[in-house]
Each structure stands twice: as C-alpha cells, then as structure tokens.
C-alpha cells in the first residue's frame, strides 16, 4: 500500500480548533513518527510531503484528496485557511502516477467526511462539506463504479464531531468502527462492525493495512475487541492531534 503523510510545522500550535489547547510540538512529532513507523511496519510505502509553516493544519492530509483506484479527487477544503494545503498534495499524488481531478468553487469537501466501505462512499454533509462537494464526489467516482450515500452530519457537528469520520472509520476492508450513540451501526455492510465503548469513543477513528490496525493508545477494550476478531493491533499516541480536532485517519492518505 502507498501512504502519503505530511510533516508537522512549528505553526501547528495555531491549528484550527474549537477548543484551543496547548500543543506540544516535540511530542506531536514523536507521535507522528510512531504513526509513520507503524504504517511502515504493516508494509506501507511512505511518501512524506514537507510541512508548510503557512498552513498550521497541513499534517491532516486526509482532508485534501480522495484517492481510489488510481484516481485522486483534490478537494476544496471547507475551512478557508486550509485551501492552500492542496497544491503540494496534488503534485505528490501526480508524481505517484494518479489521475488528478479537481473541484471548483463553491464546492467544498473535506476528506474526513468520506468513508469508503467496499464500493460505497458515505459522505458527510457537514460544516465543511457542502452539496457541491458531494456532487463533485459523485461525478468523479460514480463512473468508476462507486455509489455515493450522503449522511447528514450537522446534528453531530453540534455534539462536537467535526467530520463523518470523527464518528466512524473503516481502517481495513471488512471492518467498520463506530462511536457510541452516533450513527446506526446496522447501516454498514461489513463483516466486522464494532461499536467502541463510551470511554474510548475516539478509538472509532483508526487506520490500517491488510489485517492490522493502528488505534489510539489507552483504549484496551477496543484493542481487545479487535484482537478477538482476528486483527493485529498497534497502539499509537494521539494526544496532540486530538488537541487540533484531528485523529489517526486525518494524518494519511492510504491507497494501492
Ligand atoms: C481542522 O479543523 O480542519 C483541523 N484542525 C482538523 C482536521 C482533522 N481532519 C480530519 O479529521 N480528517
């Protein structure tokens, strides 16, 4: 699997956050390095894009592109301060051989609102992703065989969930993780659907390769549930990205 990540700038302390808390930059970089190492351990071939001091949130590359079956849809981020992050991501993806597609104003979409489960793309209609962004997603990936299913995330935005994938993720094929009291887990057709515990809600956002998953450290019940269902588990610290409303999936684009 290919993995694209971006380094953390010193300006990460100024990342967009509804609840600004002091980010420890050396600790954030250490956690990021462990994340990258975890994905390499699982066989990921990692490309690192340089940090951009002018864009404090640039580590969150997931929001900048949807990458599937050799095609990359470069998004137009929902938060204006993040729109300048896209150029180097587009260039890196083009260099890796992907066919590039783009969306135009007034469309907005954050990759954190797009959950792929097999050939279905669930897309959150959120404070970041609008109808134009959803239409652009349909126009790009519909002809490539994907169904697009909008999900209203606005009510969950009010609960503090920024994106659709703040509440759920599908770190590897056949597995969906869901935060408690959010989405109906029954709506996802996957062999393994796990609703994580109340005190581990943030473990609903995970990444993985093959049959192994990276989850936030300190979530023993989620780790046990995954292991019980046959998945390998690597725990990584997420305290610093969480201060910026981020999670594990936000920090990479993973594609074959
Ligand atoms: C933002 O507000 O845009 C960033 N501080 C957090 C983005 C997190 N991205 C993601 O969940 N995909």
Structure, briefly:
The protein is α/β, with parallel strands linked by helices and 256 residues long.
Instruction: Please state the CA-atom Rg, rounded to the nearest Å.
Output: 17 Å
Helix residue percentage:
10-25%
User: N-to-C SSE series?
Assistant: EHEEEHEEEHEHEEEEEHEHE
Question: How many angstroms does the end-to-end distance come to?
Answer: 5 Å
Largest sheet: 3 strands, mixed
- The neighbouring-strand order within the major sheet is 2-1-15
Beta content: 25-35%
Which distinct ligands sit in these coordinates? Answer: citrulline
Name the structural class. alpha/beta
- The coarse silhouette is globular
Number of distinct helices: 6
- Mean of the pLDDT scores? 97
Number of strands: 15
Describe this structure in words.
The protein has 6 helices and 15 strands. It has helices at 25-41, 86-95, 131-141, 154-158, 220-228, 239-243; strands spanning 2-6, 45-49, 65-68, 71-74, 99-102, 114-117, 120-125, 147-152, 168-169, 175-178, 192-195, 207-209, 212-216, 232-236, 253-255. The strands form 5 sheets. The chain has a 3-stranded mixed beta sheet, sandwiched between helices. The mean pLDDT is 97. It binds citrulline (CIR). The site of citrulline has 20 residues, from loops.
